[in-house]
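Moderator note: this is an archived Q&A kept for reference. The question asked for a predicted structure of one protein chain; the sequence and the answer are reproduced below.
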Amino acid sequence: MSKERARRREEREREAAIIRAAKAREAEKRERRTARSRALSGLVPKRHSRQTGPLAERRRRQVGATAAVLIALNVLVWVFVPDWSVRALILAVSLLAAPVLHTLLFRR
């Protein structure tokens, strides 16, 4: 009976050693991967977070309003004007005139 228990305990210990070795290999692989990732991420410039102040909020609102006006204009032209050349012309002009419209709408 005790020989049988000793044999089973030896098998459990052997299996536990195999599992520990596999976990050690995985941990080493994970450590190498994170080191490689840290080395590569040091080469890439950091992303700047989004500005959150009241001036940034106002600027986002103004840009959104300008974009909404231009999109509404283009949708109206698209719906009511059947000629493709006029549609394309209005689209190009609205893209070129966007900074002027923004300045006219929101003077500083």
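Archived answer notes: Residues 1-46 form one domain.
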